[in-house]
């Protein structure tokens, strides 16, 4: 088909970033399930128990906690970055606003209220709670997704932890009890530190390094001190 507006080719091209990462996510998740199933059955064999089927593993708390512990750290990364970059800046980084623009900016700069345009989202032009909510909606949703996935990690982690306790003939713990175990915080903190390191590295390295054509990079010829400009 032609690549005109509304054509099938146009849809795939215009949404290729989301589609590519969505497909890659499903492929990697499937690979994680396969390898996780094999590792889990190896541990069951060591403990003198019978291996379980792949379908049973997909429904198990062990698989769920391995997935959710990574999800919560990713959503935390974006939540902190979205809110942090409102006030925090890094001179020379395209990941930062210009130094003098730190803060929530004016309604004119944000195209809100009386400054909303014809193509602005409907709630951007209001002057009540809808505008206040919509103006912070991205951070709120990311924060909510982090909280929900962290809660899911704690619940599935409790079940997985208690499964190991029972296999070792030890007493299970309550949900509240699991929240103070080294297992919960080790799972949590090892993901948090890696996400924070990755963000810090991206902010600093993008000052001096370039990737031609990427919006995450400054133009190749931009000065190192140029801030808030994307390629």
Note the topology.
Layout: H1 8-14, H2 16-46, H3 54-58, H4 61-87, H5 107-110, H6 129-134, H7 137-167, H8 175-178, H9 182-208
Helix pairs in contact: 4-7, 4-9
Flag low-confidence runs.
none
Instruction: Report the structural category.
Output: mainly alpha
> Biggest sheet, open or closed, and with what strands and sense?
none
Shape: elongated
- Average pLDDT figure: 89
User: Could you tell me the number of beta strands?
Assistant: 0
In terms of DSSP E residues, the strand content is: under 5%
Give the fraction of residues assigned to helices.
55-70%
Total number of helical segments?
Answer: 9
Give a quick set of tags describing it.
231 residues; mainly alpha; 2 domains; 9 helices
Provide a compact summary of the structure.
The chain is 61% helix and 0% strand. The protein is mostly helical and 231 residues long. The protein starts with 7 loop residues before the first helix and ends in a 23-residue tail after the last helix.
Please give a structural write-up:
There is one protein chain. This protein is mostly helical. The chain has 2 domains: 1-59; 64-231, no CATH class. Helices cover 61% and strands 0% of the residues. It has helices at 8-14, 16-46, 54-58, 61-87, 107-110, 129-134, 137-167, 175-178, 182-208. The longest helix is centred in the first third of the chain and has 31 residues, at 16-46. The radius of gyration is 23 Å and the shape is elongated. The relative contact order is 0.11. The model has no long low-confidence stretch (mean pLDDT 89).
């Amino acid at each position: 088909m032609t690549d005109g507006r509304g054509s099938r080719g146009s849809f795939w091209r215009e949404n290729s970033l989301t589609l590519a990462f969505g497909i890659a996510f499903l492929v990697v998740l499937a690979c994680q399930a396969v390898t996780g199933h094999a590792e889990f059955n190896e541990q069951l064999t060591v403990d003198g128990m019978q291996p379980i089927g792949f379908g049973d593993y997909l429904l198990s708390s062990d698989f769920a906690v391995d997935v959710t512990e990574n999800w919560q750290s990713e959503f935390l990364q974006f939540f902190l970055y979205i809110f942090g970059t409102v006030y925090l800046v890094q001179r020379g980084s395209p990941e930062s606003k210009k130094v003098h623009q730190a803060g929530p900016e004016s309604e004119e700069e944000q195209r809100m209220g009386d400054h909303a345009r014809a193509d602005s989202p409907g709630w951007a032009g209001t002057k009540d709670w809808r505008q206040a909510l919509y103006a912070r909606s991205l951070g709120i949703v990311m924060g909510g997704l982090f909280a929900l996935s962290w809660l899911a990690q704690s619940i599935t982690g409790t079940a997985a932890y208690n499964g190991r306790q029972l296999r070792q003939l030890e007493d299970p713990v309550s949900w509240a009890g699991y929240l103070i175990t080294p297992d919960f915080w080790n799972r949590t903190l090892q993901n948090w530190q890696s996400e924070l390191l990755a963000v810090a590295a991206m902010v600093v390295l993008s000052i001096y390094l370039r990737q031609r054509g990427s919006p995450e990079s400054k133009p190749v010829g931009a000065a190192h001190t140029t801030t808030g400009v994307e390629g």
